[in-house]
Design goal:
Elements (H helix, E strand, L loop, with lengths): L1 H13 L19 H14 L7 H31 L1 H9 L9 H16 L1 H4 L1 H32 L18 H13 L6 H35 L12 H23 L5 H39 L12 H17 L2 H31 L7
Helix pairs in contact: 2-3, 2-5, 2-12, 2-13, 3-4, 3-5, 5-7, 5-8, 7-8, 8-9, 8-10, 9-10, 10-11, 10-12, 11-12, 12-13
Length: about 375
């Protein structure tokens, strides 16, 4: 019996040594864990739009999509356990002015995995099953995303005690999901029956695009003003400045992918509408791309400055992944619309950056999970 206890102690020291008990894993499971699904899924989704394709890239993207799918299921189950066993803590996080913003990660995780299922799941699941799962995940992600885009700002407006926090980059998290729905929904347009249903789907995606874009631009204005007057986020929060790139890249992706699908809807005498939407996507992509260059440079400068002063690992490091991935898909979509090799090559180069960031953050997350530190409140 003593030997058994000693062996148990050795295992305990190797696995979750920073926790008092393994069940503590669920106590502080915050919604920003879904950012790990987003960051992993975008690696797969961005790989399949690169200008150069091969069997190796497809196999790699499929493996990463499967990993993201497993993560989505595991984290969803763990999050449900968190709410059931630690309801008071969960409600406190849901009403916290900072943590509540990350509820936007949940719908984006669903949408990211759903998009990967449509493009990569057919060889494994079959076309009909892959399409069905993708459609369900898109519908669920869109419904939850629209809810967060309205609920989180409403909760902040009506809070009895107003938050003293100035605008933070994390404020974009609840308003970006409808934009992700617009870009991922574009691929589903072709599967909707032609006629009024397909038109409704396309129009709905453009409405989601507008909802997120206007709310996002207003929020980004507040964030930029805060950065100028109040300084950049410090320490663990510094990586969240990369979230601003998510709106940039995702909106360029949506504008150009929806334009491609518009040619299936507007035909014959209405064909000029599709041409106009294509022109809009290109012009929007070029203009927003210029803004994206400025924000990317600013994010790099802030990150380098913070690293020099000390940047401890936290789940906010996943902010280095998904926003960069959306810039890859945006550049590739814009490059395709313009038939521009330099733009597509820039997207491929940025994918290398994304891959390096994902490997680094994923490794640190696994290390923190084994020790248990990432399951403790920051």
């Amino acid at each position: 019996m003593t030997a058994t206890l000693e062996r148990t102690g050795v295992v305990r020291r190797r696995l979750l040594p920073d926790l008092d008990h393994p069940r503590q894993v669920f106590e502080h499971l915050t919604p920003n864990w879904f950012a790990a699904v987003m960051g992993t899924g975008i690696v797969a989704n961005a790989a399949i739009v690169l200008p150069v394709q091969s069997a190796i890239i497809t196999a790699f993207a499929t493996a990463i999509w499967l990993l993201a799918s497993v993560l989505l299921v595991a984290i969803s189950v763990a999050f449900a356990v968190h709410w059931r066993r630690h309801g008071e803590t969960a409600r406190r996080y849901a009403t916290d002015p900072v943590m509540s913003q990350f509820y936007g990660a949940l719908p984006m995780a669903l949408l990211t995995v759903g998009a990967g299922t449509l493009h990569l799941g057919e060889p494994i699941l079959g076309g009909a099953v892959a399409l069905s799962i993708s459609g369900v995940l898109w519908a669920a992600g869109t419904a939850i995303g629209v809810a967060t885009a309205v609920w989180v700002p409403f909760a902040m407006m009506t809070a009895e005690q107003k938050s003293e926090h100035a605008a933070l980059p994390a404020w974009l998290m609840p308003v970006v999901p409808p934009m992700v729905s617009a870009s991922t929904g574009a691929a589903l347009v072709a599967y909707v029956p032609a006629g009024q249903l397909r038109l409704t789907m396309l129009a709905g995606c453009y409405a989601l695009f507008g909802m997120s874009l206007i709310l996002g631009l207003m929020t980004m204005t507040l964030i930029y003003a805060r950065l100028l007057r109040g300084g950049v986020p410090v320490s663990r929060s510094a990586p969240t400045i990369w979230i601003t790139l998510g709106m940039v890249g995702q909106s360029i992706t949506a504008a150009n992918l929806l334009a491609v699908q518009s040619h299936l809807v507007f035909t014959g005498g209405h064909a000029p509408i599709a041409v106009g939407l294509t022109v809009f996507g290109i012009v929007y992509g070029l203009v927003m791309g210029g803004f994206g260059i400025a924000m990317f440079t600013l994010a790099v400068a802030v990150t380098v400055r913070t690293v020099r002063r000390g940047l401890p690992f936290a789940l906010t490091w996943w902010s280095f992944t998904f926003p960069v991935g959306t810039c890859v898909t945006g550049l590739c979509a814009l490059g395709f619309a313009l038939d521009s090799t330099p733009i597509r090559d820039l997207g491929a180069a940025l994918y290398v950056v994304l891959l390096a960031a994902w490997v680094t953050v994923a490794a640190r997350t696994v290390r923190g999970a084994i020790g248990g530190r990432v399951f403790l409140p920051a």
